[in-house]
Design goal:
Elements lengths: L1 E4 L5 E8 L5 E7 L6 E4 L5 H10 L2 H14 L13 E4 L10
Antiparallel strand pairs: 1-2, 1-5, 2-3, 3-4
């Protein structure tokens, strides 16, 4: 799990969710709201997805978060002026809720 502050000052967590049929989702969830964002990881196993997640730089993770926000219409290009701050939590394997 990784935690970061977005350019607007909101706290977020990014964590992997092990779903059914081998699907692994990267889930972005705000610490104080309900604006969940999801990204299907291009991995065949949870172990592979964990490696991909660990290899993402803070900038790459933010770029993915921003892309998902723009695709959902919740962020317009150019709105982000400050770079976020990131912190890394321990990697964990969340229980799927499917």
């Amino acid at each position: 799990m990784r935690t970061f502050i977005d350019p607007q000052g909101n706290g977020w967590q990014a964590a992997l969710l092990d779903g059914s049929y081998g699907n692994v989702t990267l889930l972005f969830s705000p610490l104080r709201a309900s604006d969940i964002r999801q990204y299907q990881m291009p991995a065949d196993t949870m172990a592979e997805a964990e490696g991909q997640f660990a290899d993402l730089s803070d900038a790459e993770l933010l770029d993915l978060w921003e892309r998902l926000a723009m695709e959902s219409g919740r962020l317009t290009p150019g709105r982000c002026r400050r770079r976020p701050s990131f912190g890394r939590g321990q990697s964990s394997r969340p229980v799927a809720s499917t």
